[in-house]
Amino acid sequence: MYKKASGTPSVNWEDCVVTALAWGWIDGVRRPLDEVSFIQRLSPRRAKSSWSQKNRDHVDRLIAEGRMQPSGLEHVEAAKADGRWDAAYAPASQMVLPEDFLDRLRENPPAQTYFDTLSRSAIFTIYFRLHSAKRPETRAKRLDDILERLSRGETWT
Questions:
Q1: pLDDT for the residue 102
Q2: Spatial separation of the C-alpha atoms in residues 24 and 18, rounded to whole Å
Q3: Which of 13, 70, 96, 105 is the most buried (most CB within 10 A)?
């Protein structure tokens, strides 16, 4: 795909991703090809992959427009049946960090001090790690690990 600034006509990223969703595929790694273009990997959605709220909204629109394909609908129905649809994660602009994390962060001044220096993307990494844990034990372990790393001032990438 060509970057907008290149002036070269090309399919745009959002149209590509939305079309992929209709067929049960998902966007993956994006890599630069040269100064004016990039390669966007698309692949079939895995059976138990998580959903973002943004992609869920795209799919709702595709269904309303009659553009969803049977292969894409299979993934939607499976996600609705096993709870992944309702557990979709928020985009970084709308994420809400869990209260138990914030409470424990306030109780740990070194962790709080380092947390306050983090970028939005690093904070989103923390949010996603907590949000994506399927079992309470896994989430508790991740919470402890995150706070430990923050208190040591370890970088989040």
A1: 97
A2: 10
A3: 105
Q: Which two tokens stand for residue 79?
A: 């996600």
Return the sign of the alpha-carbon dihedral for residues 108, 114, 115, 116: positive
Under 8 Å between Cβ of 91 and 100: no
Domain-terminating residue out of 82, 102, 122: 82
The residue with tokens 């079992």 is 135
**Rounded distance between C-alpha atoms, residue 67 and residue 59, angstroms:** 9
Query: What digits encode the pLDDT tens for the residues 18-70?
Result: 999 999 999 999 999 999 999 999 999 999 999 999 999 999 999 999 999 99
Round the CA-based radius of gyration of the chain to a whole number and report it: 19
**Is residue 18 assigned to a domain?**
yes
Tens of pLDDT, residues 60-110: 999 999 999 999 999 999 999 999 999 999 998 899 999 999 999 999 999
Give CA–CA dist 128/146, Å, rounded: 12
- Rounded to whole angstroms, the Cα distance separating 12 from 16 reads 6
**Residue 87 included in any domain:** no
- In a domain? residue 67: yes
pLDDT of the residue at 130: 95
pLDDT in tens, 2-13: 999 999 999 999
